[in-house]
Amino acid sequence: MPAAGERSAARREATGRRLARFAALRGRAARPGEFWDVVAVTAADAEQALAYRQQLAEKLSRRELPLGVRYHVFVDPPGPKIGNGGSTLHVLRCLEDLYGDKWTSFIVLLIHSGGYSQRLPNASALGKIFTALPFGDPIYQMLELKLAMYIDFPSHMKPGILVTCSDDIELYSTGVTETIAFDKPGFTALAHPSDLTVGTTHGVFVLDPSSFSGRGGLEYTSCHHFLHKPDIETMRQCGAVCVRGNCSQPSSSGDHNDSEMDSECVYTDSIFYIDHSIAKQLLTFYKQMGTLCCEIDAYGDFLQALGPGATQDYTKNTSNVTTEESQLVEVRQKLYSLLKGTALNVIVLNNSKFYHIGTTQEYLFHFTSDSKLKFELDLLSVAFSISSDKAKTLDQSTSIIQSILEPGCFVGPGSVIEYSRIGPEVSVGKSSIISGSYINLKVDIPSNCFLSSLSVKINNQVKYCAAVMPVQPWTAQRC
To answer: 401-444 pLDDT, tens per residue?
Structure first.
């Protein structure tokens, strides 16, 4: 088994190749089968959808995206929140309304971005899918990164829907002759080796230990059943815990270190594919349900119904539900009845990492520390910015994104400055986030401070508002 550094270097090299492929496709028309037929982004309400459409239109006009693709923003129906599972069903309905039966021949990328990014407030106005990243010229946002990281998928995918979220990043390396293909009936999910603590906040696959080795770049297998945010004891009881690098042997011991090498692991979820046969069944279910009045989780409520070991016990378990609605158990039970017996195919990516940047703590860590994500994506300390040699920065742990630092300003280590102009008499403390702000006063911004400014229109007049708060309250949890 290669050392952890070698594995990370392989992911960096593979990521670079995908970014180069995407860069070559930006601004030109994709050939049939080369790229997605439809890229769909979800929005929580009409105002958010309008903002998303405006940003997409600007990207297309600047030729920053592949052309000849159907880019859509689909807004959730008004009324109660329906979760990303409900949004998935609604998008299927929207595609049928737009394209009739033709939609069943499309290869679709569905990106869930309908939240308000309360745990990463600087992404609230533009949306998490338009979060700026510290690399590229012009800078990449999460949308471009998603399209780049999935650049190899469409040419090896049968018509169907690939479902992903807007605040996570999957980086992986496979062998030269190995291909990720989404061509089997039912559901197909990517699986990543992760520490057990990571498994408690993600979905965990219980795999047949005789069907894969845990070695090589990728392996195709099937899932016996799917656990949603299980505790460690449940993972062990269900046989989900393996020894990394020897995953054909389930593990029962907890005496292992926390590295990529020689430690226990579980295989956790990220993106998944729904073939069009199942998608049509889900659409029929949505039509029969009429109006949804509860939040459906595309991961917990779809995937837990799959595989030969699935039971309907989960349908009554609401421990991971923020708000329990009266309709939830009924909807889950109907989904279970619909999907029971459906295969959950799993593509095990043995050299892969799942990164989440949906909170202020994760955002600062991955952009400013010596993180694996920073190395593997080749994130820059100064990206698409103007920074005078006389601007005082302590070290390379700062992250400056599409901003101007004037001579004499000071930015402390571990801070992120995006879409801002920092004047000569401004001092920014460590581990702070400054977004969308022009600061031209003599001022000391304290450490661990979040400062974001927005322009708003009130009575047809442009006004400005600023939000200032500590970084600390937003803790690292998965959406």
So the answer is: 999 999 999 999 999 999 999 999 999 999 999 999 999 999 99
What residues are paired with 205 via a beta bridge? 226, 267
Give the span between the Cα atoms of 218 and 348, in whole angstroms: 5
Parallel/antiparallel/unpaired status of strands 70-75 and 38-43: parallel
Residue 138 neighbours by CB under 8 Å, 6+ apart:
62, 64, 384, 402
Please give the C-alpha separations between residue 31 and each of 37, 103, 200, in angstroms, as whole numbers: 10, 19, 42
Residues 6+ apart with CB under 8 A from 51: 125, 126, 127
- Note the pLDDT of residue 371: 87
- Please tell me whether residue 385 adopts helix, strand or coil conformation: coil
Contact in structure between 442 and 427 (CB atoms under 8 Å): no
Query: d(Cα 362, Cα 371) in Å, to the nearest integer?
Result: 11
Residue pair 199/240 in contact (Cβ under 8 Å)? The answer is yes
Handedness of CA 343, 81, 270, 141 (dihedral sign): positive
- Per-residue pLDDT of 301-343, as tens digits, reads 999 999 999 999 999 988 766 666 778 999 999 999 999 999 9
φ/ψ of 269, rounded to 5, equals -90, 165
Closest CA to 439 of 416, 415, 466: 466
Q: Which among 433, 266, 438, 429 has a CA at the least distance from the CA of 366?
A: 433
Task: Give me the residues paired with residue 14 across strands.
Answer: none
pLDDT at 474: 46
Give the strand pairing for 246-250 and 264-275. Answer: unpaired
CB 453 within 8 A of CB 166: no
The sign of the dihedral angle between the CA atoms of 87, 90, 94, 99 is: positive
Q: DSSP string spanning 274-336?
A: EEHHHHHHHHHHHHHH-S--S---IIIIIITT-STT--GGGGG--TT-SS--TTHHHHHHHHH
Element (H, E) at 394: none
